[in-house]
Amino acid sequence: MSQSKAPILSVEGLSVSFPMPRSGIFGERQYLKAVRDISFDVPAGKTLGIVGESGSGKTTAAMATIRLTEAQAGVVEFNGTDLFKLSSEEMRQQRQHMQVIFQDPYSSLNPRDRVGAIVREPLDLMNVGDPKGRDARVAELFELVGLRPDQMALFPHQFSGGQRQRISIARALATNPALIVCDEPVSALDVAIQAQILNLLRKLQEELGLSYLFISHDLGVVQFICDEIAVMYLGEIVEQASRMDLFSKPQHPYTKALLETAPSLARRKSAGYRREALVEGDPPSPLNIPKGCAFAGRCPKATEKCLNERPELTFDGNRSVACHFPND
Length: 328
Hints:
- This protein is of the alpha/beta class.
- It has a domain of 215 residues: P-loop containing nucleotide triphosphate hydrolases (Rossmann fold).
- Helix content is 29%, strand content 22%.
- The protein contains 10 helices and 12 strands.
- It has an 8-stranded mixed sheet, sandwiched between helices.
- Strand 4 and strand 5 form a beta hairpin.
- Helix 3 packs parallel to helix 5 and helix 5 runs parallel beside helix 6.
């Protein structure tokens, strides 16, 4: 997709597969194709959202880009550096510039450590700054995310879910990263707290110039925070467009289905709104990918061509879409 800013993260042809146990001693090994030849860019200072159902491969794709999951193919460049060519030590040094906010604020924090030590840990591991000034840096981070410095001595169980996610954000910011992968950071929180965390992430982006790769299953959430959105289905990107284009005129039938089922979209609640019929059934098994369009078995408008010919992701100047018959 063409962008007004150069990408801080550029992904080309990324594929991730996981070997499955053999059915017997002489059984043929199968591979679960979690991510299949996807490409995308994250512009500097902007947010790219990747959305899709559970099992669509969105989290696997995000983790593979920062080498927390092993990829089998592809090129990932971060600020012009090919991450897949770096040694373990070189990659460790790069991690200072890219961090992750995980989904569950209850399991991502060590319950035995005080939260001040949790936020300070990346500074010690990466040897960032003067050791004598690291506690002051942690106090500064607590204030930045809306917590009090005197709370640094408390344990994670003494905080609410929203406060714990603020601690996770402070930890991610500790090393002054340029890119943060947000892996469903608000899905475990109630609606009111979701809005607070999303507002905080937007505020931090504006103040610090951060770039986000934002993973979510809810298009209503990414509508609020993302500049561009890529929709994944069964390991592939089926549509990618700017936020405005995607929500005003979705082209792929799967994107339309996600819009219809997003619980946080205001248009679902507007007077007189009539929801269209939703797609039924489950996605095909990633162990047995159909030869045609992977969505054809659930698409109400699928034809013989859809069942037998795989649509390519094509760019038309405003968006990319992988569909033989995109909606006009």
